[in-house]
User: Which sequence fits this backbone?
């Protein structure tokens, strides 16, 4: 019998990852309902700053930071926005209910809406990063 050197690492990592996923998902929901300010959205500038700070604090802090970034990107990717994986899940669910594929026109429209939403989100994140540095 082969014993893994990582043993219980999978089960031990599962709980913090699922807690973090729920935290990000609830944060997005609270932001959409207006309970949390959109000023909390950060972009690449803030990510780079925090990566540097966490790397300075040591390997454990840096790895924890990378885990946070990974989970947040995973949650964002699963949002039901066309172009993201969550949007593809929605398309597949609609096709399953409908019994036939969604028209190309509807898919194209969804992709255009998805691009617009992502551009707005990225612009807001970049604006927040810049305004934090100017204030």
Assistant:
């Amino acid at each position: 019998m082969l014993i893994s050197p990582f043993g219980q690492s999978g089960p031990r990592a599962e709980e913090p990852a699922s807690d973090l996923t729920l935290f990000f998902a609830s944060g997005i929901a609270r932001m959409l309902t207006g309970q949390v300010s959109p000023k909390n959205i950060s972009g690449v500038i803030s990510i780079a700053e925090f990566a540097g700070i966490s790397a300075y604090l040591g390997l454990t802090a840096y790895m924890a930071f990378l885990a946070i970034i990974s989970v947040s990107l995973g949650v964002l990717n699963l949002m039901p926005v066309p172009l993201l994986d969550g949007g593809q899940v929605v398309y597949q669910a609609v096709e399953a209910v409908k019994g036939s594929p969604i028209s190309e026109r509807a898919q194209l429209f969804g992709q255009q809406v998805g691009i617009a939403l992502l551009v707005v989100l990225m612009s807001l994140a970049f604006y927040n990063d810049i305004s934090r540095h100017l204030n």
Observations:
- The chain has a mean pLDDT of 85.
- DSSP finds five helices and no strands in the chain.
- The longest helix spans residues 104-134.
- Helices lie at 9-32, 44-57, 59-77, 85-98, 104-134.
